[in-house]
Amino acid sequence: TVAVLPFQDLTPDAAWGDVAAILADGVGRRLLQAGGYRLIVGSVIARAMHHSSDPEVVGRSVGADLVIEGT
Fold first, then answer.
1. Which residues of the chain have pLDDT under 70?
2. Residues 6 or more apart from 51 whose CB is under 8 A from it?
3. Quick one: pLDDT at residue 42?
4. Which residues, other chains included, contact 8 with Cβ-Cβ below 8 Å and sequence gap of 6+?
5. For 68, left (φ over 0), alpha (ψ -120 to 50), or beta?
6. From CA 65, how far away is CA 44, in angstroms rounded?
7. 24: left (phi > 0), else alpha (psi -120 to 50), else beta?
8. CB-CB contact of 20 with 9 (8 Å)
9. What angle do helix axes 55-62 and 43-51 make, rounded to 10 degrees?
């Protein structure tokens, strides 16, 4: 089970936030296409991130074996 966290935009230009979201979605899609993975994304991750921003804590709280994060 893989949790794909929203990618973080570190640029000063807020317009790049969309690119970060697209990249995270793309990673999730590729994992689904590869097969053999159960994916946790979206609202489940968002709820877990309200309680903690630590990827390890978020992953554990949603039952993920692997957490993917990016910038």
1. none
2. 57, 61
3. 82
4. 20, 69, 70, 71
5. beta
6. 15
7. alpha
8. yes
9. 120
Residue type at 7?
Answer: F
User: Which tokens belong to 62?
Assistant: 């949603």
E-assigned strands of 1-71?
2-4, 39-40, 66-68
Amino acid at 29: R
The pLDDT of residue 19 is: 87
Place of tokens 């991130």: 49
**What count of residues does the chain have?**
71
Tokens standing for residue 66? 């692997």
Tokens encoding 28 = 């999730």
Sign of dihedral through CA atoms 19, 27, 68, 39? positive
